[in-house]
Each structure stands twice: as C-alpha cells, then as structure tokens.
Amino acid sequence: QIMLELKNEKIAIPVVLFAGLIWSLGPLVVRHMDQPELVPWQYIFSRGLTIFFLINIYLYLDEGKKFFKNYLNIGRSGIIGGFGLGIAMITFIYSITNTTAAITLLCLAAMPFFTALLGFLFLKERITLNVWIAIFIATAGIIIIALGNTEKASLTGLVYGMTSSIGFSIFSVSLRWRKETPKFTTVAVAGLFCATIATFFIIMNKTSFLSTSYNGAMFSLHGTLVTLGLILYSIGSKAIPAAELTLLSLTEVIGGIFWVWLPLFGINEVPSNNTIIGGFFIFMSIIYYSLTIKSNRRFIALN
Q1: Are 187 and 230 in contact (CB under 8 A)?
Q2: What is the Cα–Cα distance from 69 to 63, expressed in whole angstroms?
Q3: Statement: residue 81 has pLDDT above 80
C-alpha cells in the first residue's frame, strides 16, 4: 500500500500547495509547444494516453493486480464523471491556444461555483446566501473579463475556458453523487475518452497521430504533470477542510499566470487590465466563499 493518507494538516497543506504548483506549470508547457493550435488532437491523444497509462501504473503499485476491479465498480457516475473530465481536458487546450493563460485559468478558478450550481440542480444540495453572493461576485468578474476580450479568438478562448470549468465541475459532482466511485479510475477513463475522441478526429482529418518528437515530449510532459499533481492532491486533500482546499487550489491559477508572465521563461504574456480587474473579483469571491463555507464538502480541482 503506497496510498499515504496525511492526517496531519501541517504536512498536508504543503503537499496540496505543491500539487497546485505542479499543475500551474501546465500553461507554461503549452506555451513552449510548437504551434499546438495546429495539432490539438495529437496533443489530446498523447496527453490522454499518458494520463491513462500513468494512473493505471499508480493503481497497480497501490492496489496490486486487483486494481482492474475498479473498472467494474465505476458505474454511471464514473462514466459521467470521466466524460465531464474528458470534455474539460479537450476544451482546456482550445481555450489556452485561443486566449491568454490568465483568462483560461480564471475560468477554471470559477469552478467551485459551477460545482455548487450543478450540485444544487442535480443533487439537490442547498446553496446558502453567502455562496450565492460569492457566485454573484465571480460572475461580475467573468463579465468584466469578457468585456475586455472583444477579439473573436479571445472570446472563443473564454467560452472554451468556461466549458472546461463546467466539465471539471461535472467530475466533482459525479464523485459526490456516488461516494464509492473510484476517482482515479474515473480520471483514467477520462484519459482514455480523450485518446478515443482524438483518434476519431485524427482519422477523419487524415493526419498523423504524432506531431514532432519535441511536441510529443511536451504533450506527454503535460500529461505527467497533471497525473503527478493529481496523486499529490489526493494524498494531501483528505486532511484539509474543503474551504481551505478551495483557497489552496488558487496556487494553480496564480502560478500559471505568473509563469507565463515572468520574462525569465521567455513568454512575457501580460494580462490586460480587464483580466486583472475581473481576476481580482474572482479572487475576492473565492476568499469570501472560503471564509463562509464551513461544511467540509470536497471540491476537486483537476486540470
């Protein structure tokens, strides 16, 4: 049994922060790819397969040969969750190649609110007045960002970013719907789903499965970062209340925006004023939300 569960919050917090930090390197990896917007399906194929293989290896090391029984236990919730997560992974690349990393990441920051709304609609979970206020502030932030992005491509990026965020929320809600849904297996299913859809489009477009070897390495690196972050996150998240977890997941957003902006890495992507102001609203809403939610409901951010 490798599956460590950290009971101690003092150790768990740095572990979750480190997971967020690993995830935050994703946009930087994407920016260093060679014209990923020309090979989105090759990217989705390679990244999906990487995630699928790494998670199964992890499960095998963790549970031994019986790990494949998880696939039998996946049920409707796991399939819906895997589908939602797959959609989120696909729309993420379309979002980040059409707009700034800041906009894509801020859409993902709004995830707890989509999760609250979906939980309200499908699981009949109550939304308190405070959460409605936080949702309202976050919505104002997203509208400010949208108003600043009048170029068609950038607006497309924003729409894909929102779709990605909703996909991740579907995944979160599916885990709450049936507590026994094996979450790692659901992620593996999402990886397989991405690879399958990508295969279909690659064959339809009569293109090759592989991009350049440089790009292939970058696609797999991104998949590896996603999986590594996920494993660390799940190890650390058990000991941390959901409210604090939501705040901690902001490391991914702040880090992601910072790395592509930091001139050292050669991207120099400066967020627009609207993005900064809208982002401030979204951050305020999340801080407010974290201060007011006391119930320990898990929000799982996987990107």
Answers
A1: yes
A2: 10
A3: yes
Question: Structure pTM?
Answer: 0.85
Q: How does 30-42 read in b/e, with b if 16+ C-beta sit within 10 Å? A: bbbbeebeebebb
> In this predicted model, what pLDDT tens digit does every residue of 93-115 receive, in sequence order?
999 999 989 999 999 988 888 98
Dihedral, 95, 96, 102, 103 alpha carbons, nearest 10: -10
Provide the phi-psi class of 206: left if phi over 0, else alpha when psi is between -120 and 50, else beta: left
pLDDT tens, position by position, 40-57: 999 999 999 999 999 999
Contact by Cβ (8 Å): 189, 138: no
Contact 208, 150 (CB under 8 A): no
The terminus-to-terminus CA distance of the chain in angstroms comes to 26
HEC string of 130-143 equals: HHHHHHHHHHHHHH
d(C-alpha 144, C-alpha 139), whole Å: 9
Report the helix count and the strand count for the chain, using DSSP H and E.
Answer: 14, 0
Contact call for residues 207 and 41 (beta carbons, < 8 A): yes
Q: Are 193 and 86 in contact (CB under 8 A)?
A: yes
Residue 284 burial by Cβ neighbours in a 10 Å radius (0-12, 13-18, 19+) = middle
Q: Indicate the pLDDT class of residue 75, thresholds 50, 70 and 90.
A: confident
Closest listed residue to residue 191, CA positions, set 11, 47, 91: 47
The Cα 278–Cα 138 span in angstroms is: 8
Share of the chain above pLDDT 90, in %: 35
Give the count of beta carbons closer than 10 Å to the beta carbon of residue 204.
9
CB 103 within 8 A of CB 162: no
